[in-house]
Design a protein that fits this description.
CATH architecture of chain B: 3-Layer(aba) Sandwich
Strand order of the largest sheet of chain A: 1-2
Number of strands of chain B: 10
Strand content of chain B: 15-25%
Order of helices and strands of chain B: EEEHEEHEHHHEHEHEEHHH
CATH class of chain B: Alpha Beta
Shape of chain A: elongated
Number of domains of chain B: 1
Distance between the termini of chain A: 22 Å
Order of helices and strands of chain A: HHEEHHHHHHHHHHHHEEH
Largest sheet of chain A: 2 strands, antiparallel
Mean pLDDT of chain B: 84
Helix content of chain A: over 70%
Radius of gyration of chain B: 18 Å
Largest interface: A-B, 23 and 33 residues
Strand content of chain A: under 5%
Low-confidence stretches of chain A: none
Low-confidence stretches of chain B: 247-261
Oligomer: heterodimer
Number of helices of chain B: 10
């Protein structure tokens, strides 16, 4: 009996014109999105490699260690073909130098604003928007439509149980929607292989998990469709209700969640933090200047009463000590500034994390947000992308600065030149180094932050579970509603 | 109440069947009726008289407030899955699945009725019997007229081969030719020994084929006549008389039914 009902449901879906239309639209959209995604990824890789080469050349052409600057680039991630997430919004590169803090700038969208207007169509978008709508289209009249056309009465004039009927209906719609969906997805995966996209095993795992997540997400919309269809008498009413649910869930609630979190947990803007950093920096240097004046006044005081010869002798004797003291004070100022900058940044990041968490939790009222967040985590294009890169670049910056300082100490070369006048040797100009090329073979190499399973699949587990719970609850509700459904 | 000397066991039986809806409307009030093997029982009555409610009670589509609807002696509301094995149903407006062909619809609903041994030839025979043209067998139902769909509906009922058949205003909306064909088929099924309970507005067709005619008003059986009793009687006048004078009449219930039959 179950297989008969299942076959009927499948046949009913497959023979309907809307199935042909939706299957064609989905297949076309998925294949085009994967194809465009692969192209974009390949372009991004080519650009990344070219930029890396330019950065290497710039280092090689530097004539002094003081002039060595490194430019780090965000490495393209192949899973972004499926879920672009915030990839197009986050900057691609950051300068690494003692004078600037790490900051990713020049996002793809800031360079190509045209694409920022309507954004890209990727697999996640197709599932989130298009397929959820199709799921509604296939389920809005699952129960009440059968009642309206009289087939429900005719079916239940026979010895069939309601629970079995509902499970068969869900299974039939599920198979009728999911199996055809898997065809273009598999073709998309074959395209990845055909285009030789370099995917690690963790990337494949992320992609497979993404497909699983999409199946869960569509299943949820199938369940919601059946539930609404089982609590309403007319298919026009259920369609209207589902449309309202879809618009609220897909378009409104996630945005409201972010807006509400923005109001509840205030986070200072980057400009505000930079202003604070600059104010501290200025105040600290002013203090340093005042301290230096006082120090020199004290030193002058110590020399009071000395003859000119004694003063000269004293200065010569103390010169190195004073230089070291002044340099230590300067370094202390620099260290204070860096510490303050990082503290402000950390405070802001902690607050931002709180805001994000709140936003996500509110947005999760709609399971759509769960899908989106999990999909971005699986692809590594989540909101943590910027922070992950900036943190790893800061760590690299410390190593890089240490290396440069060490090289400067060993080989000299602060980027300027030194003129000395000696009574015996005459005037000498020292450029710090004799040759014009730097040996950077030991320079620390930047490694992009590695995405571990716990950062992708592990981080998405909560949303997997949440969607699963929603499906179970929704299906339970559908069964309860259908058990009480007036079949007439 | 009924005039058979050797009476077969009832296949369809309403025992003091009462249905009061949540809003207080009494759709059925202490209804008693019996349909035996090889009998057609026609329920006459206006809209809201309780005809469809009675059929719904037999199909467990509504839960009676009190009383029982028995199919082959099985309480349809207590053991609906068991009871429905013994009954086939044709609704007022058979729709079926518009994207399926007549054959596919037949195959699905007949197998749903528990008959999975039929082959295409059996379906063809049934469709021929109900008068559907061969060319229509593999056409999708969305192109069918109401009469053609009704024929499919009765073909499903025939193939289910249940001892009892419930017909809910089956000839409503059919043209006279289709109505006559349908009536012929129902009579054939009765002759094959089926117990048929039919709700209808069609007084003349009811008189033509029914072995028993019951007149319902406001959920009560106000009159019940055998075919013999209706010989030479103008049923239309009788119907109007009962409907109009009902307020002064005692309902046919329990022993009272004998006074009217």
């Amino acid at each position: 009996m179950f297989s008969l009902l299942l076959q009927k449901e499948l046949k009913n879906i497959i023979t309907s014109p809307k199935f042909t239309a939706t299957f064609l639209v989905c297949s076309l959209l998925i294949l085009i999105s994967v194809f465009i995604g692969i192209n974009e990824y390949e372009n991004a890789v080519a650009q990344y490699q070219a930029n890396q080469e330019i950065a290497r050349q710039n280092i090689a052409e530097a004539t002094s260690w003081g002039r060595v600057r490194n430019l780090l680039h965000r490495e393209p991630n192949p899973v972004q073909i499926f879920v672009s997430g915030v990839h197009f919004d986050v900057g691609r590169l950051s300068n690494i130098s003692d004078y600037n803090d790490v900051k990713l700038v020049r996002s793809p969208y800031s360079d190509e604003t045209l694409f920022a207007i309507f954004r890209v169509i990727d697999f996640a978008f197709i599932v989130q928007i298009v397929l959820s709508l199709f799921a509604i289209l296939f389920t809005y009249d699952a129960i009440n439509g059968e009642r309206e056309q009289g087939t429900l009465k005719l079916a239940f004039a026979n010895s069939i149980s309601r629970a079995k009927y509902l499970i068969a209906k869900f299974s039939g719609i599920w198979l009728g929607l999911i199996v055809p969906l898997l065809i273009p997805i598999l073709l998309g995966m074959l395209m990845l292989i055909a285009f030789k996209v370099p995917l690690a095993s963790t990337d494949w795992l992320s992609i497979i998990s993404l497909v699983g997540l999409s199946v869960l997400y569509i299943s949820l919309f199938i369940v919601i469709g059946i539930l609404v269809s089982a609590i309403t008498r007319s298919s026009s009413l259920s369609f209207l209700l589902l449309l309202v649910i879809w618009i609220s869930g897909v378009l409104i609630v996630p945005r409201l969640g972010v807006m509400a979190a923005g109001q509840i947990v205030q986070v200072e803007s980057v400009a505000q933090i930079e202003a604070k950093q600059e104010a501290f920096q200025k105040a600290r240097w002013d203090d340093y200047s005042a301290e230096l004046t006082e120090v020199w006044q004290e030193r002058e005081a110590q020399m009071e009463g000395m003859s000119d010869e004694e003063r000269t002798a004293y200065r010569d004797e103390m010169e190195w000590t004073w230089l070291e003291e002044d340099d230590a004070s300067r370094k202390q100022v620099q260290s204070d500034i860096i510490t303050n900058n990082r503290r402000l940044l950390e405070e802001s990041q902690n607050r931002k994390k709180l805001q994000e968490q709140l936003a996500f939790n509110i947005a999760r009222i709609s399971p759509v947000a769960s899908f989106q967040l999990a999909a971005m985590k699986l692809a590594g294009t989540d909101v943590g992308l910027k922070n992950r890169y900036e943190t790893s670049m800061r760590l690299y910056k410390d190593d890089f600065s240490e290396y440069i300082q060490q090289k400067e100490a060993e080989e000299g070369g602060h980027g300027g030149f030194n003129i000395s006048i000696d009574s015996e040797q005459g005037v000498q100009i020292d450029f710090g180094r004799n040759d014009q090329t730097l040996d950077t073979s030991e320079m620390p190499q930047y490694q992009s932050p590695e995405l571990r399973l716990q950062d992708t699949v592990g981080a998405a587990l909560f949303d997997f579970g949440f969607l699963g719970v929603c499906i179970v609850l929704g299906f339970g509700g559908s069964v309860l509603a259908f058990m009480r459904y007036d079949l007439r | 109440m009924q005039n058979s000397t050797i009476q077969a066991a009832p296949l369809l039986e309403a025992v003091e069947l009462t249905k009061v809806y949540e809003d207080g409307v009494k759709a059925l009030n202490n209804l008693n009726l019996v349909v035996r093997e090889g009998e057609i029982y026609a329920m006459l009555g206006g809209n809201g008289a309780g005809k469809t409610t009675t059929i719904n009670a037999f199909l467990d589509f509504i839960q009676p407030t009190s009383g029982k609807a028995l199919i082959n002696g099985i309480d349809a509301n207590a053991l609906p899955l068991e009871a429905k094995k013994h009954v086939a149903f044709v609704s007022e407006n058979v729709q079926l699945y518009p994207n399926f062909t007549a054959m596919q619809n037949l195959d699905f609903f007949v197998r749903l009725g528990g008959k999975s041994h039929y082959e295409r030839l059996d379906y063809e025979r049934a469709l021929h019997r109900v008068g559907l043209q061969s060319e229509a067998f593999d056409r999708k139902l969305k192109d069918f007229s109401k009469g053609m769909r009704q024929k499919c509906g009765i073909a499903i009922a025939i193939l289910k081969d249940a001892p009892a058949i419930l017909l809910d205003e089956p000839t409503s909306g059919l043209d006279p030719k289709a109505g006559k064909e349908f009536t012929r088929l129902v009579a054939e099924l009765r002759d094959e020994g089926k117990a048929i309970l039919m709700s209808t507005h069609d007084i003349f067709r009811a008189k033509e084929i029914a072995d028993y005619v019951g007149i319902l008003n406001n959920g009560e059986l106000v009159a019940e006549k055998t075919k013999a009793e209706l010989e030479g009687v103008n049923l239309e006048e009788l119907y109007v008389e009962y409907m109009a004078g009902y307020m002064d009449e005692a309902p046919v219930s329990g022993s009272l039914s004998n006074n009217l039959s």
